[in-house]
Amino acid sequence: MNIKLQPVILSGGAGTRLWPYSRAAFPKQFLPLAGETTLLQETVNRVDQFDGNDEIELGVPLVVCNDSHRFLVAEQLRHMGYDDSKILLEPVGRNTAPAMTLAALLVNEQAEDPVLAVMPSDHLVQNEAGFKTALVEAALLAQEGYLVTFGIVPSSPETGFGYIRKGSDLSGTASTVSAFVEKPDETKAREYVDSGQYLWNSGIFIVRASIWLKEIERFRPDIFEACTDALKTESHDGDFVRIDAKVFSQCPSDSIDYAVMEKITGGSEASSKAAVIPLDVGWSDLGSWPALREVLDQDEAGNVVRGDVFVKDAKNTLVLSQRRFVAAIGVEDLVVIETPDAVLVAHRDAAQDVKAITDHLSKAGRLEHVFHSKVHRPWGNYEAIDEGARYQVKRLTVKPGERLSSQLHHHRAEHWVVVSGTAKVTCGEETFLLTENQSTYISVGTVHRLENPGTIPLEIIEVQSGSYLGEDDIVRFEDIYNRVET
Questions:
Q1: 239 with 85: CB under 8 angstroms?
Q2: pLDDT (tens digit, 0 to 9) for every residue of the chain, 486 residues total?
Q3: Runs of H (alpha helix) within 88-177
Q4: What are phi and psi for residue 110, nearest 5 degrees?
């Protein structure tokens, strides 16, 4: 029996718990936190192929992401060789149940009732082979009509996770789900772990598309109808699938657990079709800095260091440096995170409270919780170097063959100096080339465009001067990335 398995990767993180590495515009799934590749890429690799298993007919992964992250997802998939990737854009975040419903509706148009393997994009799995073995078992159960989830075998009485209570045994390692349980206090969590009947809720679900759509329509018809209506005006923009933003913005927000799974495991709607498979594969949701320290290589004193770091007489401390030299002496149980524009110092027991920092930054009207000093764009990136009254200096890197939008600024002029590569510049009615050490000036209100016609990255130093230097002082006239607003 062949099973059509459709990976659905949910990439909607806001990027608060691992600040300052993770930011709203560049959350943790796009970062290489535990290896050479990003968490998103590791998630895709996890369901990339099932060598030697003739039962699985694997579909191209479908990524559901925020509209603002679309170019990050597309670029990271292209680096993996996915030139035909499928990326479903959510105009606004509405939690996991609507995201899964959109995915089920979309893939049902293209395949005959596939089994969905729905998983977050920002989790770590160290034993990939064990994960694939469990996924095949789950797919076989799902093909029979079960709604399957993975339960992580707990390694400690964790209070930050929800739990799943196992019911009666099914085939293999699976059992029915007796109940989904909210995050417990420490005493209750210890009771759960000691009983051997509870597993951590992984947030991974395996179910046939038709089964999910039937259950979401039964329990949350408002979500089902909003998603169905939003897809009626489905349009394709390269790799991206767009839906009706106005309709989807009216969709209620709810999780997969609350919308369906909890309802089929208790009360008058109780069903034996909810199943759980224990998973012991070195899983982590990397939900805090201490959680990251636990999965990285530690020295004899329990320290984890990366970058230009010196530690002496330190214990159980995480020190990560991106740019500057950091020294830690005589400290214990600390988290020290350095980035070009922010430094975090926290006791490991308070590391869960970093959201207070992002809340403070937001209320103060600052942007360090949204952007890094290096801001990624579909054409490359720019990085702030210096700023002062009426001036700002940036380094622009434009990828080969890419170009910025045709645009003008009402309040600032720009000086461009080419550091390396070749620039094709359009300034008003004139178009010309600039090479290393050459420069040009763009006056206020002049329509201009920058392109990289070469085969190596183009690096430019841009000096802005004027009365207002905000990024919203851009009027776009034409853009190959469809960012022009009408």
A1: yes
A2: 688 999 999 998 776 899 999 999 999 999 999 989 999 999 999 998 776 677 788 889 999 999 999 999 999 999 999 887 899 999 999 999 999 999 999 998 777 899 999 999 999 999 999 999 999 999 999 999 999 999 999 999 999 899 999 999 998 999 999 999 999 999 999 999 999 999 999 999 999 999 999 999 999 999 999 999 999 999 988 889 999 999 999 999 999 999 999 888 754 444 569 999 999 999 999 999 999 999 999 999 999 999 999 999 999 999 999 999 999 999 999 999 999 999 999 999 999 899 999 999 999 999 999 999 999 999 999 999 999 999 999 999 999 999 999 999 999 999 999 999 999 999 999 999 999 999 999 999 999 999 999 999 999 999 999 999 998 999 999 999 988 754
A3: 96-110, 128-143
A4: -110, -15
> Which stretch of DSSP H or E encloses residue 437?
none
Q: Is the link from the previous residue into 20 a cis peptide, with omega within 30 of 0?
A: yes
Phi then psi for residue 102, to 5 deg, are -60, -45
What whole-number distance in Å separates Cα of residue 398 and Cα of residue 352?
37
Distances from the Cα of 282 to the Cα of 159, 327, 421, angstroms? 18, 31, 44
Summarize the chain as % helix, strand, coil (round to 5).
Answer: 25, 35, 40
- H/E stretch holding 343 reads strand 342-347
DSSP 153: P
Q: Could you tell me the CA-to-CA distances from 325 to 145, 153, 307, 328, 344 in Å, in that order?
A: 56, 39, 8, 10, 14
Eight-state DSSP code of residue 261: G
- 3-state SS of 438-451 is CEEEECCCCCEEEE
Measured distance CA(73)–CA(80) in Å, rounded: 11
Return the exposure string of 174-211: e unless at least 16 CB atoms fall within 10 Å of the residue's CB, then b.
Answer: bbbbbebbeebeeebbeebbeeeebbbbbbbbbbbbeb
Tell me if 137 sits within 8 A of 174, measured CB to CB.
yes
Q: Which residues pair with 246 in a beta bridge?
A: none
Task: Tell me the C-alpha to C-alpha distance, in Å, between residue 35 and each of 191, 297, 323.
Answer: 35, 11, 19
* Number of CB atoms found within 10 A of residue 314's CB: 22
Amino acid at 410: H
The pTM for the full model equals: 0.91
